[in-house]
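Interim report, section 4.2 (structural modelling).
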Amino acid sequence: MSNLTDNREGTQYLLMGNEAIAHGALEAGVNVASGYPGTPSSEIIESLAKVAKERNLYVEWSANEKVALEVAAAASFAKLRSLCAMKQVGVNVASDFLLHLGLSGTRGGMVLVTCDDPGALSSSNEGESRHFARMFEIPLLEPGDFQEAKDMTKWAFELSEELKNVVMVRSVTRVSHASGNVRLGKLPETKSRAKFKYDGSSPDADEGPAESVPVGEKHRLQQEKLKTATKLFEQSPFNTYHGPEKPELLIITASAGNLYTREAISVLEVEDRVGLLKLGTTWPLPPRLLKRYLSTTDKIMFVEEVLPFLEENVKVLAAENAREVGVKTFYGKNEGAIPKTGELNPDIVVSALCKILKIDYLAMDPEYEKKFQMPSSAEIPDRARTFCPGCPHRASFWSIHNALQMDNRKGFVCGDIGCYAMGRFPCGFETTKTLHAMGSGAGLASGFGKLAQFGMDQPVLAVCGDSTFFHAVMPALVNAVHHKSNITLVVLDNSGTAMTGFQPHPGLSVNAMGDEVPEVDISKVCNAIGAKVEIRDPFDLEETQQTLNRLLEDKQGVKVLILQQACALSPEKRHTKQYEMHIDENLCLGEDCGCNRLCTRIFQCPGLVWDNDKKKARIDEALCVGCGACSLICPAGAIKRKEVA
Amino acid sequence: MATKPLSKDPYNIVITGVGGQGNVMASRVLANMLVRSSYYVTIGETFGASQRGGSVMSHIRVSRQSAWSPQIPRGRADIVVSLEPIEAIRVLKSYGNPHVKVLTNTRPIYPVGVIAGELVYPSLEEIKESVNELSLSSWFIDAADEAMKLGNPILGNIIMIGALFGIGELPMGRENFKEVISKSMPEEKLDINLKAFDIGTSMIEQYTR
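Predicted structure of the assembly:
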């Protein structure tokens, strides 16, 4: 479905926010795009990769976000236009380079798109990337709807070239992963030629070496660029106001907050009482524009996700200009009208407005709400997260859990980022006991593994996925080997960046654009670093568990166990079954088995259910993918598998 | 069937189900059909790790005038399309109102808590009682079973889209569906999807409560 290269100017399409961002980049004639997969950002690079050949782009999934930003910056230094996309946590990883990039400046237009995940819908944190723009003194734009996601991205390239610095575009889940009508613009001819000029004198922005030094001069130049940005932002069409000339309450918002606020104003029908100032250029703030609107009323509310970024910056501006704009009452995260954590929605804005404007509003008829108390409505079973049917991680954690139980020294697993972060839930038998950033499992294990000196005798394991291995585990592994830390690293190798949609990584033989590339072999890397390496199939439960128990006994240095089995949803495995499964009801002893329903109470694969009428296990034909693992856990041998010819 | 205008603006649709049922695809197909008829459509959805085995919801806002928030305000759904029966009730508890209509598939996907024996899954009779109590009108169809007869349970989502067309609430048509899937699917899959769509439509035509 490549609406993305439709060159008919003015045509309207339904585009996901991320596709709109990608189209904006195409309209700007982007040449190079890079990123590391992460929800909710992945579709930007995916969309560009799909049209790479057609549009003569170079697109890559880099090993991690810092490398991705460096790859994109190289293109900019060679006078090409480049885009780099990542989720909020990626900016943390890339931040060291970003600080220096802000000082060195850029040449060809360069845009960093960061997609935050308020409410941590698909993250292990609620990180807020906007502060990086302020901290590193680079301009920040925030699209307030889908059309703006496209238009603003396109403009960001022009802005970057005008300022000669990287421009940050910040999106959130409900812009990136929501979809709406977008009117497309024309795709230009791209005939760019790359050339890195370095013969000019040092501070020459176009022809000198690209470097952050001399710091004093570069820093001063960088701040000049921000001043220019401020002037341009005063005139930006992306800052809009809707509402009366003298509103009772002025709402200042950006990003998805704009959509929620518009809805809330419409729900409460307070269009004539409330003014809505939607900012698209959120750092540096345009002071004249803000002074004008701050002067229209004495009540100001901020609607934004996640941290009170606009709120605090506008308050500074209001304090500096108090003589002109007057004393204000502020509502928002600090005062409490808007919650300080979690994702916003129209209802939250409605509640805040009701409180401030003293409106009575009931979203739901109490008579209707009363009906929720009837037994069939009140007791809807929760749907806890779990691994998919046939997921190799369930089998891997089963073996790790059993090995640790058998070992009986209170061993534990340091978790990491990927679907297998669910190792802390019942679906992973609550095996992982730490969860932080990409690669932190191995890093923490490296530390735990050195605590024998202080009497710690618990076996230490870490898990990581194949993509995570390349992203951030390698330095931790080097550290563990070099310091003779006694740990076992289990690489859950499912042949792709599965959680975000099977993007390729350096361990695979194909790249983002579909070209054949040399794969970097994880076992060879581990061997070269100096770890002892074993490879098993996690669906072979017995062999895996025995191997793990042997490794836990080995107290010498770093052991790596690679468990190889492709994700059940991977394109090569999907819709194929290795085994036909069935329950031999004569063998299934039901509640009398003595296993206490190991199959369903403990193993908990959605494809294997408990038949309450027959009191026996049953395969759910619609869900079972035929991995065969459950046949190995039934003590009565009642779960039968037959290889599919 | 001639398409009729929206009964309300914005018209709010929730498509719900469990991760892996093709919820996102169903919402894209439906939304693309409506955009082709010159409506503004906004879809709000979440996917990624949070949806592994969890409840999934897409909010679709249809309007002649403008884009709306990707999240429907509380109590403001106009129709709920549920690929899994208890998910319909879960959605109604946040977005329902006395005028809402509900179309639901009858085949349960058991939450792991139910598989483990810690939670109880209500009977279909109880689910029907609850949905009927919480809606103006409702349709329960065996979409997943029909999809499995076609050889792939995932087609349940297209059967549901066909059924939604059959209900006649939305300005959409069969030709419209054909255009959208021929843009988004490989040719060899078109026939089976059209068949699934038609099965859904006829399930509503023959529906007796």
